[in-house]
Amino acid sequence: MDVYLPIANLAVDGLVIILLGLATGILSGVFGVGGGFLTTPLLIFYGIPPTVAAASAATQVTGASVSGVFAHSRNNGVDYQIGLVIVAGGMLGALVGAGLFNVLRSIGQIDTVINILYVLLLGTIGGLMLREALQTLGVFDTKGEKGRAAKRRHHPWIAALPYRWRFYRSGLYISPIAPMILGLVVGVLTMLMGVGGGFIMVPAMLYILGMSAKVVVGTSLFNILFITMLVTMVHAFTTRAVDIVLAGLLLLGSVTGAQLGTRIAQFAKPEYLRIGLGLIVVIIALRMAFGLTVTPDEVYSVVPL
Q1: What is the mean pLDDT of each run of 10 residues along the chain (305 residues)?
Q2: What are the φ and ψ backbone dihedral angles of 274, each rounded to 5 degrees?
Q3: Residue 301 falls within a domain, yes or no?
Q4: 125's torsion region: left (phi>0), alpha (psi -120 to 50) or beta?
Q5: Is 69 a member of any domain?
Q6: Are 68 and 262 in contact (CB under 8 A)?
Q7: Residue 302 domain flag
Q8: Which residue among 76, 79, 123, 127 is least crowded, i.e. fewest CB within 10 A of its CB?
Q9: Is residue 246 part of a domain?
C-alpha cells in the first residue's frame, strides 16, 4: 500500500508505518514513554529526512499519549498537580528548542545534530536501564550481592531548593523549581528530536524527584501529551516540517498500541520489560552511530525547505 508523503516528498508503504506506530504505542503504554525516541530513528532508517521524522513523530506521540493518559487516569495513576508544573517548564523549553532548531537548520547542521543527540542519549539511557534491571534481578552486581532496588528518595540537591510545595499523590514535599527544570529539558529535547521525553522523564521522576512509582507512568504521559501538542504547533508554524500524512499513519497504530501496552504493563514483570527496552535502545544507538561513520550512498541530497 504505497502512500505519498507531501512534506517528505517520497512514497512509503503505509502498512509499515502503521505497524511502526503500533509498536511505539505499545511502548508508550508499558513504560510511560512517548515512543518518539524509537519512532524518529526508525523513520530515519526507513529513509524519511531527519527533520520531517522528528517533527512528525512529535505529532504521533501526542495521539499515543492521549490514549495512555485516559487508561492510567482510570486507575488514579496521574498526579495532575506536579504534572502541570512540569508542563509549564516544558512549554518554555519547547520555545527555546524552536530557536535552536531554526539556527541549526539555517547553518545546515540540524540532521547531524539530531543523529548525534540520539546516539548519545539512547546509548546512555539504554546502558543505565540494562544495568539497573540486571542488578535488580541479581544477574549483575559489582559487590557480588544480589541487586536491590534503590530506596525511593529525592536527590539531596532537590531537598536544598527553596519554596517547597506538597504534591500529595506523588508523596513529595519539594520545590516546584525541580520539576519545572525537568520539563524545560524535556521541552528542548522534544523540539529538537521529536521525542516525548519519557525515556528521560520517567527515570528522573523516580530517582531524582523521588515520585511514587504508582503515578510515574501516567504523569509522564500527561506531560508528554501537552508538551508534544505545543511542539507540533510550533513546528507547523515555524519549521513547516510536519507531514500530516505520515503523522496520521503513525497515529492509526499508536492509539491502539497504547491501550495494549497499558494492559501488558499490568501483568508483565517490570525488570524483564526494562531489559527488553534497554536492549532495543542500545541496538538503535549502535545502528545510528554506525550510520554517522560510513559514507552514504548519495553524498548530496535535496530536502524541502
Answers
A1: 81 86 76 66 82 77 71 81 89 86 82 80 77 69 48 63 81 84 85 69 78 81 82 77 83 78 71 72 79 62 50
A2: -65, -35
A3: no
A4: alpha
A5: yes
A6: yes
A7: no
A8: 76
A9: yes
Task: Please state the pTM of the whole predicted model.
Answer: 0.66
What's residue 298's pLDDT? Answer: 56
Burial label for 234, CB within 10 Å (0-12, 13-18, 19+), is: buried
Looking at the 3D structure of the chain, how many domains does it have? 1
248: Cβ–Cβ under 8 A, 6 or more apart, which residues?
A: none
Q: Residue 22 is part of which domain span?
A: 2-293
Return the SS3 of 229: helix
Three cell numbers, residue 289:
552511530
Question: CB-based burial of residue 31 (10 Å sphere; 0-12 exposed, 13-18 middle, 19+ buried)?
Answer: buried
CA angle 215, 278, 169 (to 5 degrees): 5
**Sequence-ordered list of residues with C-beta below 8 angstroms from that of 124, at least 6 positions apart, any chain:** none
Compute the chain's Rg from CA coordinates.
Answer: 19
Picking from 229, 213, 280, the residue whose alpha carbon sits closest to that of residue 26 is: 280
Instruction: Give me the helices (H) in the chain, please.
Output: 14-31, 36-46, 50-73, 80-106, 110-137, 156-160, 177-193, 198-204, 213-234, 244-267, 270-293
Across 235-249, b (16+ Cβ under 10 Å) vs e yields beeebebbbebbbbb
